[in-house]
Amino acid sequence: MSDKFFELKDVESGTTSRLGVSEGSIGPAVVDIGRLYRDHGVFTSDPGFVATASCESKITFIDGEKGVLLYRGYPVDQLAANSSFLEVAYLLLYGELPTASEQSEFAGLIMHHTMINETLLRFFNGFHFNAHPMAMVSGVVGSMSAFYHDSMDIKNPEHREIFAHRIIAKMPTIAAAAYKHSVGQPFVYPRNDLDYCSNLLNMFFAVPCEDYEVDPVAAEALDLLFILHADHEQNCSTSTVRLAGSSGTNPYAAIAAGVSALWGPAHGGANEAVLKMLEQIGDTSQIPKYVARAKDRDDPFRLMGFGHRVYKNFDPRAKIIREMCHKVLTQLGTTDSPMFELALRLEEIALQDEYFVEKKLYPNVDFYSGIIYRALGIPVSMFTVMFAIARAVGWVAHWQEMTADPSTRIGRPRQLYTGPTERDYIAVSERD
Ligand code: CMC
């Protein structure tokens, strides 16, 4: 707590109280309102948590005005240019970049845990072939709690660490199983001799009847996208994992809650929605019509992949992915990508439009990521699953941070009640 404070005066009673202020290492300070109810009998209200810090964290920092994103202090563009997804995972989990031996040991540990229990694989047969993959992934990740419950003591740091390794290792296997189920192909087992993303691509696209060689360009592109998606502070799904986890529930169940929260189109589901929107727009000549619809308050249509709760400037991840689109499409030989051209033109038109300028609506991480996933041959319905694989690292890092902190209390918000006041029960025979 710093020596700064806010003074709050209750005009009616004339009482004042001092609200302490805590300073972070960077970013806005926070006002401690914990005593407000006790001292003044009122709650605070902040629907959508626009100005509420739900916790203290050392993992990720965002400056939405300047378009800055730091993982454990390192700018995301530096990590994107120099690091790998597993190195970033280590950084997010342990707080520091690994040494060479720590890095290879960590990669070995992760790749050692890639298989899932054979019984879990059979769960997929219970889903209809056209079930949304996010429904399957959420269900199967939650079911992992049935396999690792009695052996999991969340108070034990070693158990927590094994849980972290298992989730990071098994998410690609579960995602690939969901994909194979949806296309009716046999499941392909993980290959621990491959790197993380090559293994994922192999599980997706290999079939038993012919050889499949992973394209290193595709693996590298996926690795980069995963770095950019790995964590994003207290976003909707991460906050969901923290809130669910704060009750002490099985952590696999908490991660499944995160998968479910991510699925929504306002969050991770936006990458799927962007591609569907671009397909709907179809041609650059149609852009003005759709931009007009996005601005019309009476029309529910929004430009998917545009806008962000925190970024009021360019999302730094979108900038990197846009540059990457050029490179990846060229390297994969997809030089003529009408979808990418359409996205570029849409961005250009929207960014010149007064409505988007005034509301500070810029392309976000999801605007261009789908174009790359599509070029890699990943079906649109799997886009959010890709996001979930990467974000699982952030979820686990936040769950770890929260669970290891002895001062953590169960998350339990209050409300402004606007329902009926107390009234007596009326027997059914006496109701009009
Ligand atoms: N198209 C048109 N208008 C928009 C858009 C958009 N994409 N986004 C926001 N607005 C308008 C909105 O109508 C509102 O206008 P007004 O002030 O006149 O009522 C204003 O901008 C502020 O929007 P908001 O919905 O109050 O802002 P929010 O912070 O609650 O929501 C958001 C942020 C990301 C949910 C929203 O911008 C949105 O729905 N974007 C499209 C979906 C999307 O791309 N989501 C991915 C987010 S980034 C990745 C992730 O989180 O996983």
Q: Report the total helices.
A: 18
Major beta sheet, specifics? 3 strands, antiparallel
- Which ligands does the model contain, each kind named once? carboxymethyl coenzyme *A
Q: Helix and strand succession?
A: EEEHEEEHHHHHHHHHHHHHHHHH
| N-end to C-end Cα span | 58 Å
Poorly predicted segments: none
What is the percentage of strand-forming residues? 5-15%
**Strand arrangement in the largest pleated sheet:** 1-2-3
The backbone outline, from C-alpha atoms, is globular
> Portion of residues in helices?
40-55%
Summing up helix and strand content along with how strands pair, one would put the structural category as mainly alpha
Q: From the alpha-carbon coordinates, what is the Rg to the nearest angstrom?
A: 24 Å
- Please provide the count of β strands: 6
Word description of this protein:
The chain has 18 helices and 6 strands. The strands form 2 sheets. A 3-stranded antiparallel β-sheet has the order 1-2-3, with no helix packed on it. A 3-stranded antiparallel β-sheet has the order 4-5-6. The model has no long low-confidence stretch (mean pLDDT 95). It is 51% helix and 6% strand. Helix 11 packs across helix 18. It is mainly alpha-helical and 432 residues long. The radius of gyration is 24 Å and the shape is globular. It binds carboxymethyl coenzyme *A. Carboxymethyl coenzyme *A binds next to helix 17. The site of carboxymethyl coenzyme *A has 20 residues, from helix 17.
Structural features:
binds carboxymethyl coenzyme *A; 6% strand; 6 strands; 18 helices; 432 residues; mainly alpha
